[in-house]
Specification:
eight-stranded mixed β-sheet, single chain, 15 helices, globular, binds flavin-adenine dinucleotide, about 15% strand, alpha/beta, five-stranded parallel β-sheet, about 500 residues
């Protein structure tokens, strides 16, 4: 083997992160290649084709801002884009910037090992291919390693099974079927109303009720798009100062002035919540600045939402079971279209498995609380091995042969979420400890990818072969984050 790696950069993953990384690497004159497990670009939006899959950030915002030509020419059709539309957009990006010629599809990375003598990474795919590169960028996604709980009897079910994150490319027809869906996180909340309209019966197995607010989705008018496009840069700049880099139509969300729920007159507070509920989307939780910092304040938003659930869901017992008991917004809110009202349908049954959990999957269906539920097909809306799964499922080895999975056995540690001590020349996009899933992720991704590109440019300009986060810097970042959490 020669001392020189075969290219400057290998990128794993061809979603929003990998595509932009490739584009910037080329701009720097670096030789780069993307390895992607799927047979197309899009990442999240390639895999998650379940009915109702949709973005919770408005489409004029959930898009790249690095190219004004791109953002001017692309037309979004709805306020919140559906999965097929985002996938079309990412395919357009791949074509427009000629990215496909450096992307190898159907190439799942199995292992990556840092060769200390040569300062490069040796990357192996499941098909047995080996590639080398000076730098390795893991654009493998925070929510891309699917999770199915290890239920006894898994695999014994006689009917078809689906995971929302590995949905077939062809439409699935549930007409006339008794469908069971396990999980009421974001994917469940989005798909349940759509599947309920087609299935003969839908059984929803819920362990934890979810806080969800209405999207109030609608077509996007040409005038609205034009208004943004007239000053897209200004629009992006204003949004970058707002909560989670998610724009809101309420100007007070970005003005830095405190408005406290506990100071507000109860009638005014109710009016403000109602206005945001009717407007739709995530800005509901930014109605007051103390909702994330004061439990009593948070309770006012929770009580308003409980009232909405009681108002919408006709059966008081079902309404109660659909009402979350955790703090509102401690997990990202879900954004839905007709979720609570779906439970008024005669063909939808909520099965609470919080106290009597799913015991086993059986050839006919599943058993929970001592009762067997017969099903024609089963959907796992059970989410992901989030944040670390897509990284620890690869055998990544850094200095001294140390494995990333072992280094993170007590919990992940990463400097800025971008680099890991002991793993030279390895970059993570939106890795653990970065704001990532708390934000409009495209903004977080662009910021991370630009940081990595700046770093690569610096190394190349200064003829440096190696970079690595120090343990001190990594711990400093973790301590800083922990003290922020304590202050909150
Ligand atoms: P991904 O899009 O996950 O792409 C990672 C790619 O890496 C995948 O194509 C995968 O196949 C590939 N890969 C992984 N491991 C390997 C391997 N070993 N070898 C080769 N290839 C590999 N964010 C928001 O801001 N708003 C939303 O509304 C929103 N909705 C979402 C809905 C769902 C159902 C999910 C799952 C996520 C959602 N997200 C949302 C988060 C979303 O993941 C990000 O917004 C964004 O798409 C992430 O892009 P990415 O390129 O970083 O990762």
């Amino acid at each position: 083997m020669s001392d020189l790696p075969s290219r400057d950069l290998l990128i794993v993953g061809a979603g929003f992160s990998g595509l932009y990384m490739l584009h910037l690497a080329r701009g720097l004159g670096l030789s780069a290649r993307v390895l992607e497990a799927g047979d197309g670009v899009g990442g999240t939006w390639y895999w998650n084709r379940y009915p109702g899959a949709r973005c919770d950030v408005e489409s004029m915002q959930y898009s790249y801002q690095f190219s004004d030509e791109l953002q001017q020419e692309w037309e979004w059709t709805e306020r919140y884009a559906s999965q097929p539309e985002i996938l079309r957009y990412l395919n357009h990006v791949a074509d427009r910037f000629g990215l496909r010629r450096d992307i190898q599809f159907n190439a799942r990375v199995r292992a990556a090992e840092f060769d200390e003598a040569r300062d490069h990474w040796v990357v192996s795919t499941e098909a047995g291919q080996q590639l080398t590169a000076r730098f390795l960028v893991m654009a493998t996604g925070c929510l891309s390693a699917t999770n199915i709980p290890d239920f006894p009897g898994l695999g014994s079910f006689g009917g078809p099974t689906f995971h929302t994150g590995r949905w077939p490319h062809e439409p699935v027809d549930f007409t006339g079927q008794r469908v069971g869906i396990i999980g009421t996180g974001s994917s469940g909340v989005q798909s349940i109303p759509v599947i309920a309209r087609q299935a003969r019966e839908l059984l929803v197995f819920q362990r934890t009720a979810t806080w969800t607010v209405p999207a109030q989705n609608r077509p996007l008018s040409a005038e609205e798009q034009q208004a943004v496009k007239a000053d897209y840069a200004g629009f992006r700049q204003r949004i970058s100062l707002m909560n989670a880099a998610i724009g809101s139509a309420f100007p007070e969300d970005g003005n830095g002035v405190e408005r406290l729920a506990l100071d507000a007159d109860p009638a005014d507070r109710a009016r403000i919540y109602e206005e945001r509920w009717q407007h739709g989307g995530l800005p509901f939780i930014w109605a007051f600045t103390d909702l994330y910092t004061d439990l009593q304040a948070n309770e006012t938003a929770a009580e308003f939402t409980r009232g909405k659930i009681r108002e919408i869901v006709k059966d008081p017992g079902v309404a109660k079971r659909l009402t979350p008991t955790n703090v509102m917004g401690c997990k990202r809110l879900c954004v839905d279209t007709g979720y609570y009202a779906t439970f008024n349908r005669d063909n939808v049954h909520l099965v609470d498995v919080s106290e009597s959990p799913i015991e086993e999957i059986t050839p006919r269906g599943l058993r929970a609380g001592g009762r067997e539920y017969a099903l024609d097909c089963m959907i796992f809306a059970t989410g992901f091995d989030a944040m670390t799964g897509s990284l620890t499922r690869i055998d990544i080895r850094g200095r001294g042969g140390q494995s990333l999975a072992e280094a993170w056995a007590e919990g992940p540690r990463a400097y800025l979420g971008l680099g890991v001590a002991g793993f030279p020349n390895l970059f993570l996009v939106t890795g653990p400890g970065s704001p990532s899933v708390l934000t409009n992720m495209v903004v977080a991704i662009e910021q991370n990818v630009e940081w990595i590109a700046d770093c690569l440019e610096y190394l190349s300009r200064n003829d440096k072969q190696r970079i690595e986060a120090t343990t001190q810097a990594q711990e400093g970042w973790e301590i800083g984050r922990a003290s922020c959490r304590e202050r909150v």
